[in-house]
Queue: 2 jobs
Job 1
Amino acid sequence: MSTHPSPAPEPGDSPEVAHFGRPRRGWRRTFFVVIFESSTRAGKAFDVALICAIFASVAVVMLDSVQSIGGRYPRLFHALEWAFTLLFTAEYLARLACVERPARYARSFFGIVDLVAILPTYLAFFFPALRALMDVRLLRVLRVFRILKLTAYMREYRALGAALAASRRRILVFIGTVAVIVLVLGTVMYVVEGPGNGFTSIPVGVHWAISTMSTVGFGDIVPKTGLGRAIASFVMLLGWGVLAVPTGIVTAEITRRRLQEPEEQEPRRCAACGSGDHAASARYCRDCGAPLPAP
């Protein structure tokens, strides 16, 4: 039994395209260009239409949660929900059908998001017992996660995600340091103020320290002694500086990546078929074979 190797990545392919595999020819190749390559005219139109559908579906879920609106037009919202579910199901199946490695796409972040976008409606339909969950809006709330699909179409989202992933160790160290600080401050406030002033336990003191350092300040517990107020003032001032640290970490990583990236150039587009993302050295369109304009 012979096996055929997957097509090698073509010049100009993004890491996502190379990971999932681009078909060589046929209708799968055409679908792939439209669905995954936003640089083409058809790809841009597909992305814009899908983004509009995502916003519309999330708006339907939000309006359905308003009792005065959702309770007045239940059939309309039910029909709209099924319409969006079938639309996103067709999109999900099309993505699986037009890539060389559908299992990789199904296990990827965006593949899981696509599945979560359609799963709640089918769960309630095929498993009637789960309709009890609909009463607490659990499945309906899950449908709001469709908004995560937008991250697949915006480069800025991907850049921010890459910066957060690269900064994760420094952020974890920062969070660990903050956890130690609030634990110490919560313990000190428990000793200083005591149960008589509302600090009935160390966890309560830690809760107070977190809300104070984060500048939330619920006001449910306040220090009443002079020393406790002095400590509270220190925690408030400390909170201003603490909140700026993760922002600085991520901003520095974004700046470093931006400086390391080569200067972005306008993608070379085929005048005959509109296909884009051609390599700088390419002379002919990889989709239709027409001559490409000079770079």
Note: Residues 210 and 216 are 8 Å apart (CA to CA).
Job 2
Amino acid sequence: MSDSPLIDSLTAAVEARPDDLTLRLHLAELLVGAGRGVEAIGHAAQILAREPANATARQLMSSALGGSSDAPPPVSAGSPPPVSASSPPPVSASSPPPVSASSPPPVSAGVDWAAMEQDLGDIVPPRFSHSAEPVRGPEDRTFDVETSTITLADVGGMEEVKKRLEISFLGPLKNPELRTLFGKSLRGGLLLYGPPGCGKTFLARAVAGEMGAAFISLSITDVLNMWVGSSERNLHDLFDSARSHAPCVLFLDEIDALGHKRSQLNSSSMRTVVNQLLTELDGVDGNNDGVFVLAATNAPWDIDSALRRPGRLDRTLLVLPPDKPARVAILEYHLRDRPVAGVDLSRVADVTEHYSGADLAHVCETAAEFAMRDSIATGEIRMISQADMLAAVREIRPSTDGWFATARNVAMFANESGEYDDLAAYLKKRKIR
């Protein structure tokens, strides 16, 4: 408690009603009059943060900081109320015109505003903010652009997939004279489909590296927005970014989420997103030369048919679980930084047929857990052994089985157009009928 009951009562009132600027101004005047300028500074600063043009608060701040000896007289209980923070101060013939709330506060000779901002930075925010980095507009999305350092040579096995990529995509690109001779167009895109975890994204990056092109990966989180029209604008901005960085591979991951069948969508906003995607693929609002569209999905049967017509995603490539050479390469990759002794990768690959790349990574992780658990129990560090790898294989089942169960129904009963002939041939080879 202080020696002034009036100040104490006003302080309590301000704490109870912090947004009452008139009450806070009255308290600041009393504090300045009582020689308690340090306390008055905080109250005056909070008033100026909300009403920079409040002349009374500026005068109080100047007095509290010692910039002027003309402090306003203390207000007694019987005095008329001070000038309201929301009403303009009285203007005489010799007074300068009042300052409006929209104009910047005049620089007072007795107030060092820079020093005030530094001293009171923990009490009120600064008057003006200065961004450390320039604000990016929708047209400047260069931070989304990557340079892929991997090529198809880094993809173990999968020779059939590489051959299809070479014939349908990379061959015409690398041979412009032959492309011109045979009238081969580079319009349209390539749709990669297959069970999850089998390397579709890795293949897309490898294609970008093989071409020496920029790489932009677009997912549903980059596009969808709660505000009407923002999703379509985001989609347009990302395609514009790809055009400005041509040659560029634009990878549309989980394309079934962005390009779902419009007949099955209950949301009108999602239907307009699909329409915008069709427009961008056609290049109606911009030239798509040098933009190579790759898309990936686990559910090609859920994609709107308009996306699959010629000139859009008109070429499809089935990405199956890795073959044996690919499985050996994947296992070796995930064991490269782990303590391993006596592991026969070829034998492990033999017993992991139909495992996805993600399944194989899980096998290596589980085998490492077995070895680490024994090391903790015995107090002696031991290496990951063949027994650990085989035990992990017995514990982990291939995750692709569920996908093929669904794909079987599509290949058998919804393949009138022949677009799933590759899938049907694989299922027949595996005797999944």
Note: The two ends are 88 Å apart (CA to CA).
